[in-house]
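Regression test case RT-17, inverse folding.

Input:
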């Protein structure tokens, strides 16, 4: 059982939960307000099964993507990572292949229970398979591909709130490509997916350097991409709408506590990821790339918590609670 959990990178499910939660919090509180009942009512509006379908489909999409990643790399892993479940023979290749197909099909079937869900999940799955079998080892293109995987999943996450939020985001994409869209707020729905995509692009670009020859400039550029979106999130925090709301109500303690929470998350993110990245840049050693990757994967949860805090502090706090779970599960179920 542990080997199967290693194959699907079980700790990474925490990042999926963080992405889902951040998408929902940001979409609900994008126009202001702090009533926590708004989010609950929106999640429960319509079919009571909607949230369950989105969660299950997301988990299956992630798990199948991770499994196909190892299936695609089995020959390479026989040399570089012979102790992993597939190359070591602890998990049978044919069994894993069948499981990958079953999970991919199940993800689409579950997503089909949601309006537009089948199509968006199909895009997510197609991009994940394209990355695993085609672009992963193509410098820069693989990083862009993986960024699009998380971007498209962040759009899928909007189905937590109903198809109207997804449709709003699609209109935002159309507007970005010059289509005449007059619906106010269409581009706002793309804020989080774009920021998440930028973070993942930088992270994947850095991770590429662990298995291929690269330059220090690429390492710097990958870190700069992550720093740029983290900087945008920090600006969003210090200009959050709830700062003025708390001031008008005289709730200065809540305002300070919320700012302290956001700045604390920012500091933890910079320390966990930035310190490792800077060490690799300063010393220029390839062996220092490895520690950046798990730190940055966990940093994705902190990044989500930081952005969510700028829209609703309680949302950021809830997402932050996933971070220690990620750390503990990651230590218990380590990939060789």
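Golden output:
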């Amino acid at each position: 059982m542990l080997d199967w959990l290693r194959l699907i990178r079980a700790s990474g499910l925490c990042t999926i939960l963080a992405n889902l939660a951040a998408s929902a919090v940001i979409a609900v509180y994008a126009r202001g307000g702090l009533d926590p009942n708004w989010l609950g009512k929106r999640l429960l509006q319509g079919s009571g099964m909607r949230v369950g379908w989105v969660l299950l489909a997301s988990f299956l999409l992630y798990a199948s993507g991770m499994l196909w990643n190892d299936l695609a790399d089995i020959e390479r892993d026989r040399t570089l990572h012979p102790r992993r479940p597939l190359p070591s023979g602890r998990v049978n290749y044919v069994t894993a292949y069948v499981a990958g197909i079953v999970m991919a099909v199940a993800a689409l079937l579950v997503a089909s229970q949601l309006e537009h869900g089948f199509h968006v999940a199909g895009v997510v799955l197609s991009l994940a398979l394209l990355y695993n079998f085609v672009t992963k080892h193509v410098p820069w293109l693989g990083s862009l591909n993986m960024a699009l995987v998380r971007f498209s999943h962040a759009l899928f996450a909007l189905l937590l709130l109903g198809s109207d939020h997804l449709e709003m985001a699609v209109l935002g994409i159309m507007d970005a490509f010059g289509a005449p869209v007059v619906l106010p707020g269409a581009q706002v729905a793309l804020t989080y997916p774009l920021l998440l995509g930028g973070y993942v692009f930088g992270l994947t670009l850095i991770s590429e350097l662990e298995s291929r020859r690269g330059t220090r400039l690429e390492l710097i550029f990958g870190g700069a991409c992550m720093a740029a979106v983290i900087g945008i999130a920090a600006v969003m925090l210090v200009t959050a709408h709830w700062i003025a709301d708390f001031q008008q109500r005289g709730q200065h303690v809540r305002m300070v506590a919320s700012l302290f929470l956001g700045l604390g998350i920012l500091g933890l993110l910079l320390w966990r990821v930035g310190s490792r990245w800077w060490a690799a840049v300063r010393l220029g050693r390839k062996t220092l790339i490895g520690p950046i990757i798990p730190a940055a994967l966990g940093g994705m949860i902190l990044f989500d918590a930081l952005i969510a805090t700028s829209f609703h502090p309680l949302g950021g706090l809830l997402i932050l609670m996933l971070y220690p779970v990620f750390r503990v599960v990651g230590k218990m179920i380590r990939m060789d």
